[in-house]
Known about the structure:
The complex is a heterodimer.
Chain A: H1 2-22, H2 36-69, H3 85-114, E1 121-128, E2 131-136, E3 141-145, H4 151-154, E4 172-175, E5 180-186, E6 191-195, E7 200-204, E8 210-214, E9 220-226, E10 239-244, H5 246-266, H6 273-287, H7 289-292, H8 316-325, H9 341-353, H10 365-372, H11 377-380
Parallel strand pairs in A: 1-5, 4-10
Antiparallel strand pairs in A: 1-2, 2-3, 5-8, 6-7, 6-9, 9-10
Chain B: H1 7-19, H2 24-33, H3 36-66
Helix pairs in contact in B: 1-3
Amino acid sequence: MVRITTITIGSGLGLALFAASAQAEWTVNLTPGVTDVSRSVFDLHMTIFWICVAIALVVFGVMFWSIFHHRKSRGAEAHNFHENTVVEVIWTIIPLLILVGMAVPATATLVKMYDSSEAELDVQITGFQWKWRYDYLDHNLDFFSNLSTPREQISNEADKQEHYLLEVDRHLVLPVDTKIRFLLTSNDVIHSWWVPALAVKKDAIPGFINEAWTVIDEPGIYRGQCAELCGQDHGFMPIVIEAVSRDDFQQWLADARADKQRVTAAAERTWTLDELMQQGEQVYLRACAACHLPTGEGVPGAFPALKGSAIATGEVAAHIDIVLNGKSGTAMQAFRDQLSASELAAVITYERNAWGNSLGEAVSPAQISRLLEPTTGEAEQ
Amino acid sequence: MSDKPTLWQTLLSVLSSFFGVQSERNRERDFHGGHPVHYILTGLLMAALFVIAVILLVRWALSLAGA
């Protein structure tokens, strides 16, 4: 029995070691990151680490030496005394000096971290259950960034890829060598926007605006996650930053704005039922399937089924209303600002014609865009 | 032993309580001859001075960073 257990543990350990070596970039230490601040944080971390190592060596060194040197077999006898003011003062002053010594560089780094003045670019980051919205203030551009890892990988029906749960449909594109200010807030519960390579980890709190900033040195892809438990899909709202040169950023901005206009224009033309169903399925899997499931069956007791439901097979106005405006007191969000008119029309059409729901009618994007007009993003600003 | 602690001794006792270390001899003296109100008042005064010192320290640190 004992032998079997040992073998099992042994092979388990072997597997664990193999798995660890298979992940080439896996390290135990903090990342030095790609910004001036992240490098200061890393240096601070290493400085304090080595101070701790030195303290441990001295304290345990003296302890072990004393135990060994004054052992009983050598005839050592305990010296009984109650207190010694001098020794107490010494062991209070030394830690005090060490703490002050650590506080000086730590304060310098903190002051730097909090100085978000003179930023060239402002990006508002809003946390949603469970996605991020990025708003390029002054550039009339905003979009949602959703998890793009396929459902099959999450449910183990397909192999997990390299960036499993760390990939999104739209990257937060940022220019390098530019001071960028992040304004963080939330639409529902407290989230936390965390990108280790930038050494930025800041809470996104509903009703508050927190500030952070960065200047990225090197172009590249930097990944992060939500760092504040925010509900069911807390682990499914990653952050992906794509840092590009300043010229590429201007080009990207122009392209993204042109795309946005094309989407708005697309709502004006007439869509066929097939087109709507096709796009609707994509939108559904991206925006709805997390709760209502790809099969439309929902989760009994938590998220209602859409398959054969009263709303998805009933009056179209009520269906449009709940998708656009959500339902307060439940997890059902308002999607009017999250999806474009054509996406909304497509997904509603899809829900009314999929999984055996067969109303055969199409909701047109033009119909939705008329409903969106009074409170679209631009009107609010 | 029953001598009353002087103002200076009271101050030193309060400061050593801030520091967290006091000799047994001083403790005996304080508890035999001292009056609690003196220590409380000195303590409040020193706490206020400590807060002011921290405020000044932070201002100084921020002014260094701003420069």
